[in-house]
Structures are given as structure tokens and as C-alpha cells.
């Protein structure tokens, strides 16, 4: 295969949400809707079904503003998740913070300061999570997300899709072909927080898999720093298998200063779905 793709500055990050099973399709434009509760529908019910229909179509230039908004909001959600939920996945950090709290008591002999220590540590985690993630966001918004047409629509072997509900863009996903190992990378998946729980993320993921099959890629790969278990269950439900994990991943935009290393840690997981043997 001979695919050309632009050099990316930022690495892959995925934002995904909870999902339900939905029917797939191999059409260029994909539509799905919530199944009716009975075989027969009255006119009012039929209107509701049409209203709930979600279309997956290729990106158009007029989508740029909404696409960037969905991406921005999805990444910003990662700040509290990384700062607070993320610490549950970091036993070494928990131990270190507990040790610092104990040392605070022995050094100050103040119960008040010791009780405040965990709050100060969590505040520092939030500050550095916001600092690093905003730096990453700025990087993404000035590279591929600044010109989706150039990064994903023009190069052969790559594409960008949007999910549309009732005329409104509610979800996004990209596929970027990699010629060196004949794989396609699933990137930039995000769903508007107001439309989650409808299976949109899974529909977008399936669209990438269909694209990979049609273009004879050997596998689909992705990398994620998602903290929520629902995101990982989504990838597994699509057939992906985890192939690696890094506990101290360097997110683009990190300075790796001592304070940043103390208050910001993130887990990076790699997934792969093998489509055929090379």
C-alpha cells in the first residue's frame, strides 16, 4: 500500500464516553436510531424516531467551528478526571502524598496544617493538570485541529468524520493511515457531553473500522490516556485488545519539572485491532 500522511506534532489522545450497542453498516454514510418499543409506530412515535436518527458523514469545512468546540470541551473534561480520578490508578503517588502529610505533622506539630495538607496536594494536582492539559490542547488546536481538511481529508489513507443529530454536529473521529506498518490510527474521538449514552461513540469507532477494512489496512491502533473505565470498555467492545501501558507518560506540552512530575502523572494505554495477517 502507498499512503501519504502529514507529520503530526501532537500524539494521539482519545476522548470517549459511555455507549450502547448499535447496528453497523458498510454504507459511506451511516445512520442508526433507537429501536422502537413495538413493531407498529403511530405518527408521533415515527417522528421521534426520525428526530433521534444519527448520521455519520465525512467532515465538511462548515463543520470546523463545532468540531473544534467538541474537541476543546472533551479535552477540558480531562483536567478534573486526571487530577482526582487518576490518583486512584497511582498507588505510589498515594503513598508519597500520605508520607508528605505525615511529615507535615512531625515538622509543624500542627493538626490544622496536617489536615490541610491533603487539600493543598489535591489543589496542586488540579493546577498542574490544568497547566499540562491546556498546553496539550493548545498544541492540538494549532496543528491538525487547526486545518482538518489538510491533515485528514486531503492525504490518501486518512479521513475525518462527524456524527450529526437533528442537523447538529454531536461527535467527531479521525483516521490517519500509517504507511510504515500498514495500520490506521483512530484519533480525536469525542462526543458532545449533552448527547452521550446514545451509542454515538461506538458508531464513530465502527466507521473507522469500516474505513480500515475498505482500504486494506492490516490493523487499527489507538492510544489513550482516558481515566474513565467506560472509554476502555468501548474499545474492547469494538474488538480492540490492549497491547501496552505506560504509567509515567509524557504528554505533549509537559516540561517535566520536579513539581510537575510530583503533581501530574498520567497512564497511557495502547490498543490494537488486527484485521488481517501481513
Summarize this structure briefly.
This is N-acetylaspartate synthetase. With 278 residues, the chain is of the alpha+beta class.
CA-based gyration radius: 21 Å
Q: Indicate the CATH class.
A: Alpha Beta
> From the helix content, strand content and strand pairing, which structural class follows?
alpha+beta
Question: N- to C-terminal separation?
Answer: 12 Å
Specify the CATH homologous superfamily. Gcn5-related N-acetyltransferase (GNAT)
What is CATH's topology name? Aminopeptidase
Poorly predicted runs: 1-41, 43-49
- Count the DSSP helices: 9
InterPro entries: Acyl_CoA_acyltransferase, GNAT_dom, NAT_camello-type
Family: Belongs to the NAT8 family.
Protein name: N-acetylaspartate synthetase
Organism: Echeneis naucrates
How is the secondary structure organized here?
Elements (H helix, E strand, L loop, with lengths): L29 E3 L10 H9 L2 E5 L5 H13 L1 H8 L5 H18 L2 H31 L6 H6 L5 E7 L2 E11 L4 E9 L8 H15 L4 E6 L4 H9 L3 E6 L11 H6 L4 E7 L4
Parallel strand pairs: 5-6
Antiparallel strand pairs: 1-2, 2-3, 3-4, 4-5, 6-8, 7-8
Helix pairs in contact: 2-5, 3-5, 4-5
Architecture overview:
This protein has 278 residues and is an alpha+beta fold. The protein has a single domain, classed as Gcn5-related N-acetyltransferase (GNAT) (Aminopeptidase). Helix content is 41%, strand content 19%. The chain has helices at residues 43-51, 64-76, 78-85, 91-108, 111-141, 148-153, 200-214, 229-237, 258-263; strands at residues 30-32, 54-58, 159-165, 168-178, 183-191, 219-224, 241-246, 268-274. It has an 8-stranded mixed sheet with strand order 1-2-3-4-5-6-8-7. Strand 5, helix 7 and strand 6 (219-224) form a beta-alpha-beta unit. The chain is elongated. Keywords: Acyltransferase, Cytoplasm, Endoplasmic reticulum, Membrane, Microsome, Mitochondrion, Transferase, Transmembrane, Transmembrane helix. It is an enzyme of class 2 (transferase). One of its GO terms (cellular component) is endoplasmic reticulum membrane. This is N-acetylaspartate synthetase.
